[in-house]
Design a protein that fits this description.
The chain has 2 helices and 10 strands. By secondary structure, the protein is an alpha+beta fold.
Length: 199
């Protein structure tokens, strides 16, 4: 009878408390790992979005330079876009002005300009203008700080060069997200799609 009574008895309060405590600890560790994984996923998603934006900037510059003509090197640290008419070589350039594929050669107010400037809040950024530099739009987000040593280069643009006009773009700097700095360096070269026939 004693044996049967002992067999029918349940867990003691101490055994129940130990089991519940172990269960809570395991759940808390699992929840911590899950929350940490979710945080890392959000961070990597945001970083991917910033890097995609940077890739878009380079793609936009490359595509429009490829179909444009009359490349003009803007001197580094220059903010004067009033005399951008004649094609001009240069290395390095603080920016590049050119006639858009449907632009009018004689009209300087319709030139497209890409340039690096510290007009951005908190550092340097890449800017784009489609009206000869009168108005500009910041292309790079605030999380991207462009290094001032980034540059454009123009080769073969002047009439006596005898070569196909081409341009290079080098962007380097850092991505600042959640007080973490991630360096980057990108470079691309583009040649004018239309043959240089003196246009």
């Amino acid at each position: 009878m004693k044996f049967l009574k002992r067999k029918k008895s349940g867990y003691t309060i101490i055994e129940t408390m130990i089991a519940v405590s172990l269960f809570i600890i395991i759940v808390m560790v699992g929840m911590g790992a899950l929350l940490n994984a979710n945080l890392l996923h959000k961070k990597s998603q945001n970083m991917r979005s910033i890097i995609d934006n940077l890739s878009f900037v380079l793609e936009d510059i490359s595509r429009n330079l490829r179909t444009g003509y009359n490349y003009h090197c803007i001197s580094p640290n220059s903010s004067d876009f009033s005399n951008l008419g004649a094609p001009r070589n240069g290395d390095p350039c603080g920016g590049i002005a050119f006639e858009y594929q449907n632009g009018n050669v004689g009209n300087l107010n319709d030139q497209w300009v890409y340039f690096i400037s510290n007009n951005k809040s908190g550092g340097f950024g890449v800017f784009k203008s489609i009206d000869g530099g009168s108005n500009s739009v910041q292309l790079t987000p605030d999380e991207i700080d462009i290094d001032p040593v980034s540059f454009f280069s123009v080769f073969g643009a002047e009439a006596d060069d005898g070569g196909q006009p081409r341009a290079s773009v080098k962007l380097s700097g850092k991505i600042i997200y959640n007080n973490v700095e991630t360096p980057f360096s990108l470079r691309t070269s583009v040649s004018q799609r239309a043959l240089d026939l003196g246009i």
